């Protein structure tokens, strides 16, 4: 299922400081958005608000209604919306247990669930580490586990907060494989990053938090830093 999130007059303030005021925005279905902005402008805060993990100071967020089980359990967060933290939160257990957590209540046999988990781990190149404790993994490998756990749920909207920070090229490419698969399934992605890379190049829209609001800027600016440097050198020498 693909969903759409819309907001009206979304504001966030801390004491006297207005972090941002966004008249309106919409995500989905099947969007791929690169969210840019300087440090401290509120990118992470905006993602957490959209995921239902924080409440805005004012404004309205329109999302699909929670089902009866979520209402009874007082679950936070929006249905079918996953927030992927820059520093992944992982459980004290094996790699397999972490990835399988999201599908533990699905109406499938254990064999089918195991097949899904192994497929996810194979996509991120960690199938041989399925039985290892999460503590033995590197930072990049932990981020891949977090991505596999998000992918296996097949979210309608995946909010990725600096997913490529401090990752090597192999880890970034593994995340790209899963991100492409989700887009092909009709999911929407919002990706924050301080540098353009293979993940941000998947995006078809670019948002910029600037001067305490959100603006959409041309996709022509979403190019790798090395290309920006070439353009700058050519401009200086011509």
UniProtKB/TrEMBL annotation:
Pfam families reported for this sequence: ABC_tran (PF00005)
Domain (ABC transporter): residue spans on this chain: 5-236
SMART domains: AAA
UniProt-listed InterPro entries: AAA+_ATPase, ABC_transporter-like_ATP-bd, ABC_transporter-like_CS, ABC_transpr_CbiO/EcfA_su, Metal_Ion_Import_ABC, P-loop_NTPase
SUPFAM superfamilies: P-loop containing nucleoside triphosphate hydrolases
GO biological process: transmembrane transport
Highest taxon in the source lineage: Bacteria
Entry GO MF terms: ATP binding; ATP hydrolysis activity
GO cellular component: membrane
Keywords: ATP-binding, Nucleotide-binding, Transport
Family: Belongs to the ABC transporter superfamily.
Name recorded for this polypeptide: Energy-coupling factor ABC transporter ATP-binding protein
């Amino acid at each position: 299922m693909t969903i759409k999130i819309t907001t009206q007059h979304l504001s966030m303030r801390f004491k006297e400081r207005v972090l941002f005021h966004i008249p309106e925005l919409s995500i989905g279905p099947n969007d791929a958005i690169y969210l840019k902005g300087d440090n401290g402008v509120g990118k992470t805060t905006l993602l957490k608000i959209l995921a239902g993990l924080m409440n805005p100071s004012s404004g309205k967020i329109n999302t699909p209604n929670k089902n009866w089980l979520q209402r009874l359990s007082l679950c936070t967060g929006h249905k079918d919306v996953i927030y992927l933290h820059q520093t992944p939160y992982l459980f004290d257990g094996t790699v397999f247990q972490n990835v399988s957590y999201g599908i533990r209540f699905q109406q499938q046999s254990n064999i089918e669930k195991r097949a899904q988990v192994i497929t996810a781990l194979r996509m991120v190149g960690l199938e041989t580490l399925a039985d290892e404790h999460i503590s033995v993994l590197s930072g990049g490998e932990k981020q891949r586990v977090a991505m596999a756990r998000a992918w296996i749920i097949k979210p309608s909207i995946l909010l990725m907060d600096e997913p490529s920070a401090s990752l090597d090229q192999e880890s970034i490419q593994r995340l790209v494989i899963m991100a492409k698969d989700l887009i092909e399934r009709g999911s929407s992605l919002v990706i924050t990053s301080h540098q353009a890379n293979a993940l941000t190049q998947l995006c078809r829209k670019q948002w910029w938090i600037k001067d305490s609001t959100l603006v959409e800027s041309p996709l022509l600016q979403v190019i790798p830093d090395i290309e920006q440097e070439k353009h700058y050198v050519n401009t200086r020498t011509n």
